[in-house]
Write a structure and sequence with these properties.
Chain lengths: 114, 516
């Protein structure tokens, strides 16, 4: 009467484990949003493939979303004259709007002043 | 005793015919005549098995050449025949939407893409009845659904390749779907929906169900997490950000973002397990699992990779029903054979080649490596540690698959990823858990949405763990080498060496078995 088959027991154990662990995660991370921000690598900017704006080749620049061949050429032209000291200098390049700028900088390594 | 593998030679004969038929155009009626002769000779020499078999294989080879000509044949009424007359002026076309609408952000606006079954086109002499499918790109937000009868105006042009240097041909990809032309509709051009519900009601229901399932992920997970889950469970990869796709590609784990044999295998296992909870015969369980897989394949849009995996799993499951000893390698070639019959151009699909060679490596190369003397020694030493043995086995499976796909990956994607062997050790167990949780989340989201967030939290944790591991793997020096340019000859030489290695190892194994 009170017998559960092996498969039934496994299903109960699976649901029980998910409910218990889910509740645990929910409590921990709702109370510590900063801890969640540290762990949430999928949404984080840490995993963006970052390149050095002052050393990147044309091919590397084109791989950045929103950067086409002509924008890459303009960045290289600018770099020939002087190296970038700040990301804000990108805004002065033709074809890089504010929204594009916000996307591009996600893919750049921080610039270290010499 | 060696297993009979009739589909191996059938598959090979048909494939050779398809390859030759593609690159060596032969008059169609000559092929028909030759096929009839070889078929008749095969029948005449039926009692002499060797001669008869030669003619049967020859006829299959010729059938491959015929099949590819059938697919290439364009009807006189096809829209692609008149595309060249609309180079300067925009084309006005009427037709029915026959696919799901794929929407994505495109710079400041939206871009929707769908397949249109053309009905008629406007010419200077009035409307002309036409047939054939075209791909339509519509810019701006539009309210279009599957089955709508539309009147569109835009620029029509033949399908093209983005970059001739790249090995992936967009033109061939579209051709496999029966598409030869593309229509581009500008943002400000109006679209007239003349009438609705011209599609199949079952297909419309599957699109609507898929939309509901996507919403369950969107409502319970964050943007990127939902995008990854939609790719793994529903085969919808378009919302995965490029940096995540790149991360997976660089570690050789991009295969988990598309529904493949691995996913279908896990799903089949889960369904079969769930059916064990109900009192029914074993054979009924196999039938229901197969039916579920076909339903799932239909739900996710019948993509080639899913169809292939479903066919293979079904052949395998059905062989249990008929209680016939199942030879997995034969099932693989049977599935391949059926896929080529569906569309011979599938042979040139990178996904088909990759998944076929992956399964082949698992079935052929892995047992040979695992049974080699030095691996057996290591396994004997680890006899009492089952976890270590499991790790060794998983490593060897991963190594076999990597060796199998190495040439093709280098050729198509110009990348070599040695870290794959290590990454798969962590990623594959994660994907098993993720698929189980994902399917349960769908179930809970539909019936008990109040507690679905608990399942979502478990998914969040395991997804982050998996992406975290992949991220760390990518950072290992020598994890991947980009920019390889493998020539066709290079790939050919690689696979000759690969199959020779398989043959050699198999020969050694058989000799050892005979001696034993």
């Amino acid at each position: 009467m009170f017998y559960l088959t092996k498969e039934e027991r496994l299903v109960v154990i699976y649901f029980g484990t998910v409910l218990v662990l889910g509740s645990l995660f929910y409590h921990i991370f709702k109370q510590n949003p900063n801890l969640w921000n540290m762990i949430d690598i999928v949404e984080s900017q840490k995993i963006y493939p970052k390149i050095d704006l002052n050393k990147a080749s044309r091919k590397q620049l084109i791989k950045i979303p929103q950067v086409g061949p002509s924008t890459a050429d303009r960045i290289l032209e600018y770099r020939k004259k002087k190296s970038f000291q700040d990301f804000d200098e990108l805004k002065s390049i033709k074809g890089i709007s504010n929204s594009k700028y916000k996307t591009i900088i996600l893919y750049l390594k921080p610039i270290h002043s010499p | 005793m060696m297993s009979r593998r009739p589909f191996l030679i059938l598959f090979i004969s048909l494939s050779f015919g398809i390859v030759l038929g593609r690159f060596l155009p032969t008059p169609f009626y000559v092929l028909i005549l030759l096929s009839l002769i070889t078929l008749s000779l095969g029948f005449l020499f039926l009692k002499n098995s060797r001669i008869s078999m030669i003619f049967v294989f020859l006829s299959l080879f010729l059938m491959g050449m015929i099949l590819i000509q059938n697919v290439r044949l364009i009807s006189k009424n096809d829209i692609s025949n008149v595309v060249r007359f609309y180079r300067k002026a925009p084309a006005v076309i009427e037709g029915v939407v026959v696919s799901d609408i794929k929407e994505r952000n495109f710079y400041q606006t939206k871009k929707s893409s769908f397949e249109l079954q053309v009905k008629r086109i406007k010419s200077p002499w009035g409307w002309k009845e036409k047939s054939g499918k075209i791909l339509v790109h519509v810019f701006g937000s539009r309210d279009i659904v599957y089955g709508d009868y539309l009147k569109l105006q835009g620029k029509i042009y033949p399908a093209f390749d983005f970059d001739k240097e790249k090995r992936f041909s967009y033109k061939d990809y579209l051709l496999r779907k029966g598409i030869r032309s593309i229509l581009s509709v500008k943002k400000k051009t109006p679209i007239e929906v003349i009438s609705s519900q011209h599609g199949f009601s079952l297909k419309a229901a599957s699109f609507s169900l898929r939309k509901k399932l996507k919403n369950i992920f969107n409502n319970t997970l964050s943007k990127n997490q939902s995008a990854i889950m939609k790719a793994i469970i529903l085969g919808d990869r378009k919302s995965i950000p490029s940096h995540i796709q790149k991360l997976f590609a660089r570690t050789g784990s991009a295969h988990i973002l598309a529904i493949s044999g691995l996913h279908i295998g896990i799903i089949a296992f889960l369904v079969f397990f769930i059916l064990k909870l109900f009192p029914m015969k074993r054979s009924l369980r196999f039938i229901f699992t197969t039916l579920f897989l076909f339903g799932y394949c239909f739900l996710v849009g019948g993509r080639l990779s899913v169809v292939r995996a479903t066919l293979m799993a079904s052949v395998f499951l059905l062989s249990f029903i008929f209680e016939k000893e199942s030879d997995v390698l034969n099932s693989l070639f049977l599935a391949g054979f059926l896929i080529l019959l569906l569309n011979p151009f599938n042979l040139f699909d990178a996904g088909f080649q990759l998944s076929f060679i992956s399964v082949f490596s698992i079935l052929c190369l892995y047992p040979m490596i695992a049974n080699s003397a030095w691996v057996s020694d290591v396994q004997k030493k680890a006899k009492s540690y089952s976890f270590v043995r499991f790790l060794i086995d998983s490593f060897l499976v991963s190594l076999s698959v990597w060796l199998g796909v190495l040439g093709l990956v280098a050729y198509y994607f110009q990348i070599i990823t040695p870290v794959t062997v290590l990454t798969n050790l962590f990623v594959i167990p994660c994907i098993g858990v993720i698929i189980t949780l994902g399917l349960t989340l769908i179930l809970m989201g539909t019936f008990v949405p109040q507690i679905s967030f608990l399942f979502a939290w478990c998914i969040k944790i395991i997804l982050n763990a998996m992406v975290g591991i992949i991220y760390l793997m990518e950072k290992i020096p020598g994890a991947y080498f980009e920019g390889f340019s493998f020539s066709f000859l290079g790939v050919f030489a690689y696979y000759v060496a690969f199959f020779l290695l398989c043959f050699l190892l198999n020969f050694k194994r058989n000799r050892a078995l005979r001696q034993y």
